[in-house]
Amino acid sequence: MSVEGGADLTGSKNSNSEPRRIPMSAPDLGELEREAVAAVMRTPRLSMGPEVEGFEAEIRQHTGARHAIAVSSGTTGLHLCVCATGIQDHDLVITTPFSFVSSANVLLYERAVPVFVDVDPVTGNIDPNLVAQAVQDLKQGGKQADHWLPRKGSTPQAPLKGILSVDVFGQPADYDALNATAAEAGLTLIEDSCEALGASYHSRPTGMLGKVGVFAFYPNKQITTAEGGMVVTNDDRVAERIRALRNQGRAPGDTWLDHTYLGFNYRLDELSAALGRVQMTRLDELLEKREQVAHWYGERLAEIPSIQAPQVIDSTTRMSWFVYVVRLPHDVDRTALAARLEGRGIPTRPYFTPIHLQPYFRERFDYQRGDFPITEELGERSMALPFSGVLTEQEVDYVCRELQTALRANE
Question: Which residues contact 58 (CB under 8 A, 6 or more apart)?
Fold first, then answer.
């Protein structure tokens, strides 16, 4: 592996050769962000003010959406989408078991039933062919429908209402196929793009590839507001309902103490919005820096044939790198490998634990190991390496060198 400028990659932090500590992720913040937050602190307006409106305007400009609605997290944004599109008790919604758990949790909040289908082995995104088959069988009912439903926890003859897709690790799902299936069956397509701000599918921006989409801005995301999210849509009715529901159910015309709907306190504060507004002005820069880090990883991992690097498929006209997840050989003990890397100051994460194998999903729906084999294989073999736009080339070199050494120790 090349070492730029002859840099020391021993991992030494001092003369005692103590391993350096590589951050798992880190936000990319500068003086513009600090000043924007400080400026809000000098005003009496800390909520529901101009910074939220400015942040929403930046997202509208980026996506071309008619509506952008700032919320307190990506999870709350998804929950509002479920509520505003009329998904409720016992309704069936097709979704993926390979995701961060909140994409399925939001359905449980409204007592709907997630109907999992397996994923594409290359991208980890929901398999559109399986979605189409599941929709057909669920519409027909009978034994064909039973194949897709959980063993317990669903109601016979419950209506199929929607599809909730996830843009896994920053790569869009196959929306041409998903939209065709949704349109033919009269289903609502919700796009969980919480990991994919800035990505594009056939040159169309994520967030706008279904009826309604959601971004998230946790500190490890492409931009950050510390905590926060954004819902985008061109549907006026859905947007109006989401604005009301995020603000304690206040509909247009309601006074401060009037509440037309049962709502939530899902607003984004002015300090977070100020941070997000400035980050959005730097979006292209932030994405390019993450692309560079992903490129460095790709170059170096090409020298470790046993490691499978992430693949960007043709329909993804821009990848928005959220995390950098590799796949390990089948015979590698991931837990032992992670421990060896941790000992060298390199944190890793398993991405993802399959949702259907989470304890409360198993208890509620009687899911079992073997139900979704591709998801389970990805869950067993995937490992996220340290990744952010502020990671240096020397740090990537160190991670890859130590990974190769740890793999050799496994042989």
Answer: 276, 277, 280, 281
